[in-house]
Amino acid sequence: DQYSAPPSLKRLLSAKLKALTANRRLIK
Questions:
Q1: Average pLDDT, stretch 9-16?
Q2: Positive or negative, the Cα torsion across 21, 17, 19, 23?
């Protein structure tokens, strides 16, 4: 059962990752 993530999900994940790194930069 193969499942490929839709582009919207990938965009959401990358956005979350960017937000996480941005928060880390603010904290440091």
A1: 92
A2: negative
